[in-house]
Amino acid sequence: MNPSKEPFFINRIKSVGYALKGAVYLISTEASIKIQVGIAIVITIAGFYFNISKTEWLIQTGMIGLVMSIEGVNTAIEYIADFIHPEHHHKIGRIKDISAGAVFLAAITAVIVAGIIYIPKIF
Fold first, then answer.
1. What is the arithmetic mean of pLDDT over 14-21?
2. Was domain 32-122 assigned CATH 1.10.287.3610?
């Protein structure tokens, strides 16, 4: 074992710490993720209110995680793009548009899934 390297377990703990730090930064600084956290809370409360099934919980939780994760990736792409090319550039703009489009597609899918779960319960 290389003495300058830390043990695997210590590296994993540090990695989780870095990931948690990134998640807290994302949620505390980005307006769009704050909105999505609010929506996630509302939809979770709705899940308890309407007593959704285990399968519906799994799908709903997966969709919340998908949208929020892609929003995080979108934010990271925007930060990288701004770092590489701070002034406006049409190719950087295209990259940002595509990244935002991925969030949009995930969000639309989540809305459709929520409709499939909740519309029959409401009506």
1. 95
2. yes
Q: What is the pLDDT of residue 117?
A: 97
Give burial (CB, 10 Å; 0-12/13-18/19+) of 23. middle
Residues 6 or more apart in contact with residue 94 via CB below 8 angstroms: none
Query: Where residue 28 falls among pLDDT bands split at 50, 70, 90?
Result: very high
Domain range list for the chain: 32-122
Q: Please state, in angstroms and rounded to a whole number, the distance separating the CA atoms of residues 67 and 102.
A: 9
What residues contact 118, with CB distance under 8 A and at least 6 apart?
A: 46, 50
Backbone phi and psi for residue 95, each to the nearest 5 degrees, phi listed first? -60, -45
Q: How far apart are CA 34 and CA 77, in angstroms?
A: 18
On whether the CB atoms of residues 65 and 40 are closer than 8 A, the answer is no
Q: For the CA atoms of 33, 39, 45, 50, what is the dihedral angle to 10 degrees?
A: -140
